[in-house]
Amino acid sequence: MAWTEVEAAPRSCVVLVPAGSLEQHGPSLPLGTDSLIVTAIAEAVEALMPDKILLVPTLWLGASEHHLAFPGTLSNDLDAFAASLVSLVESLVTHGFSKFYVLNGHGGNAAPIAFALRKLKNLHKNLVLGSAGYDDFCRQAVADAMDGPQKTIRHADEAETSLVMHLAPQLVRAETLRNDGLMPDPPLVGLISHFDEITDAGVLGFAKLASPEKGRAIFEAAVQGVARELAAIADGFVFRR
User: Fold this and answer.
1) Which of the residues 59, 82, 157, 218 could staple to 112 if both were Cys, CB 3.0 to 4.6 A apart?
2) DSSP code, position 2
3) What residues form DSSP beta bridges with 54?
4) Nearest Cα to 59, choosing from 83, 41, 85?
5) What three-state secondary structure class fits 129?
6) Whole-angstrom Cα distance, residue 80 to residue 128?
7) What's the pLDDT band for 59 if we cut at 50, 70, 90?
8) Judging by DSSP bridges, how do beta strands 14-19 and 99-104 pair with one another?
């Protein structure tokens, strides 16, 4: 877009900010897997309702320190990631936009995103701010599609590998697909681990069970779910007792 086109955009639209990463995804998937997936979902949502979405480029340098043991991973500092998001929003607030939604594709970004949006809400109480992972909108589709015992999206697993097989099959090194990952025994809810502590090759799940058909089903569910959420924010909502 040229600046004149941004100037002409309706201020009722939702500024959609995809957030990804550049980090290891096992031996079979590219480093940019999270950014690839979340960008594709955001672009598909924009295509469904271009008059209600202003899509900005993906924040690709995610908070990925827990993957740094694997070569190729690039990580942003937590504070720096949050500051980048705050600066992005502040820039467009200057131009009159007031609705912002961060669509997250990487779990490590969740905490700094929450911090940044809470800070922005404290500074600008008139802003409409929201954030969710794309996986929040396709949980049932993931559970229905996955054949392995793991029924949620983890890391370079059956679901993520299926998504890349659907979106960019040429980037999947099929001959290196593997199942990998350790879980604490007894189960723990809030444990924080680095990936070299819980995996051999950076995979957490059953990647060998992936297929492009599963990826398409998950992708379509995510797009429809995100579109419903953003349409409600763009069109307006109320709080009811």
Assistant:
1) 82
2) -
3) 15
4) 85
5) strand
6) 23
7) very high
8) parallel
Mean pLDDT of the chain: 97
Tokens standing for 147? 């054949």
| Confidence label for 18 from pLDDT (cuts 50, 70 and 90) | very high
Structural domains in the chain?
3-235 (3.40.50.10310)
| Rounded alpha-carbon distances, angstroms, from residue 214 to 1, 162, 227 | 34, 6, 20
Q: Where are the beta strands (DSSP E) in 78-225?
A: 99-104, 128-133, 179-180, 205-206
What is the structure's pLDDT at 216?
98
Q: Name 140's Cβ contacts closer than 8 Å, sequence gap at least 6.
A: 221
pLDDT average, residue stretch 13-36? 98
User: Tokens 């998950």 map to which residue?
Assistant: 218
Q: Per residue in 194-241, pLDDT tens? A: 999 999 999 999 999 999 999 999 999 999 999 999 999 999 999 999
Residue type, 103: L
Measured CA to CA, the distance from residue 56 to residue 231 in angstroms comes to 17
The pLDDT of residue 56: 98
Which pair of structure tokens corresponds to residue 90? 């502040």
Cα separation of the two ends of the chain: 42
Confidence of residue 20 (pLDDT cuts 50, 70, 90): very high
Cβ contact 158:146 at 8 Å: yes
Q: What tokens were used for 40?
A: 């594709």
Return the structure tokens found at 12: 């009722």
Q: How far apart are CA 67 and CA 197, in angstroms?
A: 10
